[in-house]
Design a protein that fits this description.
Rossmann fold; glycogen phosphorylase activity; pyridoxal phosphate binding; 3 domains; binds ligand 26V; globular; Glycg_phsphrylas; glycosyltransferase; Alpha-1,4 glucan phosphorylase; ten-stranded mixed sheet
């Protein structure tokens, strides 16, 4: 048995030496995993390493909390139904500066750290950009020493894993083990009881005040699990608190002894299902009730927790908002507004007006979309069944609000109908965005154009009534994960040129500007790219068996697959190139590898068919000897944070080609630019700001802008057939979808796509933008044949991407919405 010198296991984080770290790992291998160095599996070793590293964090987490308490600091609670964390180990090591030390320690133990890191599965408790943004914000909050805490759900099943079977997406259960996750500290003693269902009895309380009683509820218990979130340097370690659901009955021996054991178990399963799984964004009708319960479960646990913490500091309820900020990550947690009102009015017996002032001063709302179906609405009937008291509260909020609306717009008799929380058309529904706006002091979009469209098109009435509430906070990403950790060769090169300040101050990347044309620097830059491209080529070979040319232009489109993101536009371009080679004998100027990755929502047949189309096109083209090294198409399965970390450092070209006016911001565009990819993009979301920052010369833009598309829509004057008739190249590409060129084995498979373009109005304007896209891709080829010019632009992209650090975004929220200060 190895002698273990330290008990308890280590460690004063930054003074950790390899002896101490090694002992901690061996300690956990023995006592937490019940194994030995000799017998341990890779999985056990990984677990022991993570537990040893967690010990370092726990110490700092406790110290951080103490510091916040001593300063009686204002706290921010970031409420989100989704957090897409990715792997944690590598990120923690990077932030604590322990990567080298641990690698050395592992070497001594005869273990490869890389292999250990590959053992960890991605924490994918999210479906898309909103979830990853939340994870970047947590990293930035901790780095900026700000008391900001994530609150979410500990789903047993996070986002599905994607396999590609015969080119079709197949969904499998995700791998993140929430039961035995080494990063989570469970706190079963801090349980919260959450009421649902039941009915409300009118009643009178103190001073004959109307005080309805919510009774006959069913209770679900919420157990908190804390994940330490380390900022850069490790001074501040905040927490992400995730709740899991437990049955209240399991704790009630009475029921188990009351002769109805099976009934009790059934109820237990029913309650625990609340945190069972993450729902995909397009939740179906049958799952609606469960999704509502989940959203309520999150906000109810959170509000109870916040209140408990606040009261423990000895604060007066009336000062609650001075000490507390709640950010609602889209409308999913907007019920927090009704729940906070219920808590203040029913439980703390505050009067309505005071409660409302406190609630509004506390809550702020971020919208993350322009897709109309994505705006949440709850059928009133369902809502009343699950949350009868909250419905009453919402009615009261609405009643008072519409009174204000009538006073404010006496001549606009439709204003109350347009602005009501309750929509009467198409079955009565609660409009959650309206609740979020009315109950918040701040409403923001996530890029300049998005925020403007929210004001002008989505919520014009509210923007008119409360102009001071609306603002923009352009998204950002953490350069620590997406550049420092994901791309070590480039990160080292940058640091060797300008020092390492950029890791915590991304704006200093601008110092690279002067290196952009430096031939020595360019040479080294090219070496990092070659290295990364070869690694990705190896990975593609391992996963798909496909050999790709690492010297070809890597053209990358990685994101959720959805019609509005227009993977189809990219495919039409590929088809165009293919036919130009095989029919016109026109080889492209530069060889290209088109790399796709992304998941489709399980209930989105159109997106799923696009995935199949990507794969089928790949199959035909990759097999065709006529296109040889000139053209390849790859789709990598199971897109997520870890795969993105492999692809992004190797990308030459970043495809950001959504129809203008549909992508709220995009954040992949920022990650790619920060790593030196050039963007081909529409004037949509934060592409516009990226182009402003890096300069129009260093960005390929094309396509109609949002205003023009809106105009064509309103006038009903866009006709895909015009473009089809006028341009034989467009016709030739589009016709392939009507033929069986890419579906010999399943004839007619892609005809629905053809029909959506040609017979159903091409809702996302593919044909309108195709010609300009093809022309712009030609400019891309042109530039790629001049490596020095390409590299210069790529380096300028990195140098000018500082604005897109989530540190900047979080500072803007902190200053103008949260009034949150660093506590050092
Ligand atoms: C939801 C749904 C649900 C129904 C089907 C289609 C659909 C499409 C989009 C969504 C939006 C989900 C919320 C989300 O993740 N939004 C993303 O947030 C990112 C961070 O702000 C932003 O960069 C992306 O542009 C935005 O799509």
């Amino acid at each position: 048995m190895t002698h273990i010198s330290h008990y308890p296991p280590v460690c004063n984080a930054l003074e950790a030496d390899n002896g101490a770290l090694r002992d901690a790992i061996l300690y956990h291998l023995q006592y937490s995993c019940g194994s030995t160095k000799k017998e341990a599996t890779q999985g056990e070793l990984a677990r022991a390493v993570m537990l040893a590293v967690r010990d370092l964090l726990t110490e700092r987490m406790l110290a951080t909390e103490k510091r916040y308490q001593q300063h009686n600091a204002k706290r921010l609670y970031y409420l989100s139904m989704e957090f897409h964390l990715g792997r944690t180990l590598g990120n923690v090591l990077a932030n604590l500066g322990l990567t080298t030390l641990l690698a050395r320690t592992m070497e001594e133990l005869g273990v490869d750290l890389e292999e250990i890191r590959e053992q960890e599965s991605d924490g994918a408790l999210g479906t898309g950009g909103l979830a990853r943004l939340a994870a970047c914000f947590l990293d930035s909050l901790a780095t900026l020493d700000m008391p900001g805490f994530g609150y979410g759900l500990k789903y047993q099943f996070g986002l599905f894993r994607q396999e590609l079977v015969q080119g079709y997406q197949k969904e499998l259960p995700g791998r993140w083990d929430t039961e035995h996750n080494p990063w989570l500290i469970s706190r079963p003693d801090e349980v919260f009881a959450i009421p649902m269902y039941g009915r409300v009895e009118p009643s009178r309380g103190r001073n004959n005040r109307y005080a309805p009683v919510w009774q006959d509820q069913k209770f679900v218990l919420g157990i908190p699990h804390d994940m330490p979130i380390a900022g850069a340097g490790g001074k501040t370690v905040n927490t992400l608190r995730l709740f899991s659901a437990r049955s209240a009955d399991a704790f009630d021996i009475q029921i188990f002894t009351a002769n109805d054991y099976f009934q009790a178990i059934r109820h237990q399963l029913f309650s625990e299902s609340v945190s069972k799984m993450l729902y995909p964004s397009d939740v179906d009708d049958q799952s609606l009730e469960m999704r509502l319960k989940q959203e309520y479960f999150l906000v109810a646990c959170t509000i109870q927790d916040i209140m408990k913490k606040y009261l423990k500091t000895g604060g007066e309820i009336s000062n609650f908002a001075q000490n507390t900020a709640i950010q609602l990550n889209d409308t999913n947690p907007a019920l927090a507004i009704a729940e906070l009102m219920r808590c203040l009015v029913d439980e703390h017996q505050l009067d309505w007006d005071n409660s409302w002032d406190i609630t509004r001063a506390t809550c702020a709302y971020t919208s993350h979309t322009l897709v109309p179906e994505a705006y949440e609405k709850w059928p009133v009937q369902l809502f009343e069944k699950v949350l009868p008291r909250h419905l009453q509260i919402i009615y009261e909020i609405n009643h008072r609000f519409l009174h204000e609306v009538r006073l404010r717009y006496p001549d606009d008799e439709n204003a109350p109908t347009r602005m009501s929380l309750i929509e009467e058309t198409g079955g009565r529904q609660l409009n959650m965005a309206h609740l979020a706006i009315i109950g918040s002091h701040s409403v923001n979009g996530v890029a300049g154009l998005h925020s403007q469209l929210l004001r002008d098109n989505v919520f014009p009435d509210f923007a008119d009534m409360f102009p001071e509430r609306f603002s923009n906070k352009t998204n950002g990403v953490t350069q620590r994960r997406w550049l420092y950790k994901a791309n070590p060769p480039l990160a080292n090169l940058i640091t060797s040129a300008i020092g390492n300040e950029w890791i915590i101050r991304a704006e200093t990347l601008s110092r690279l500007d002067e290196f952009a044309a430096d031939s020595q620097f360019q040479k080294q830059f090219a070496e990092t790219r070659n290295h990364n491209k070869r690694s990705l080529a190896d990975h593609i070979m391992r996963v798909t068996g496909l050999v790709i040319n690492p010297d070809s232009l890597f053209d990358v489109q990685i994101k959720r697959v959805h019609e509005y993101k227009r993977q189809l536009l990219h495919l039409l371009y590929i088809i165009h190139c293919y036919r130009a080679i095989i029919e016109d004998g026109e080889p492209p100027q530069v060889p290209r590898t088109h790399i796709f990755a992304g998941k489709a929502a399980p209930g989105d047949p159109a997106a799923k068919l696009i995935i199949k189309l990507i794969n089928n096109i790949g199959q035909v083209i990759n097999r065709d000897t006529r296109t040889r090294d000139m053209l390849k198409v790859v789709m990598l399965p199971d897109f997520g944070v870890s795969l993105a970390e492999k692809i992004i450092p190797a990308a030459d070209l970043s495809e950001q080609i959504s129809m203008a006016g549909t992508e709220a911001s995009g954040t992949g565009n920022m990650k790619l630019a920060m790593n030196g990819a050039l963007t081909i993009g529409t004037r949509d979301g934060s592409n516009i700001e990226i182009m402003e920052e890096v300069g129009a010369d260093n960005f390929f833009t094309f396509g109609l802008d949002a205003d023009t598309i809106e105009e064509l829509r309103t006038e009903n004057s866009y006709n895909a057939w015009d473009y089809y008739a006028d341009n034989p190249l467009i016709r030739r590409a589009v016709d392939c979808l009507d033929s069986d060129m890419f579906c010999q084995e399943e004839p007619g498979l892609f005809r629905d796509i053809f029909a959506s373009l040609m017979y159903e109005g091409d809702y996302f304007f593919h044909l309108a933008d195709l010609e300009s896209y093809i022309d712009t891709q030609q400019q891309v080829n042109e530039l790629y044949t001049h490596p020095a010019s390409w590299r210069k632009k790529a380096i300028l992209n990195i140098a000018r991407s500082g604005k897109f650090s989530s540190d900047r975004t979080v500072m803007e929220y902190a200053e103008t919405i949260w009034q949150l200060k660093p506590v050092v």
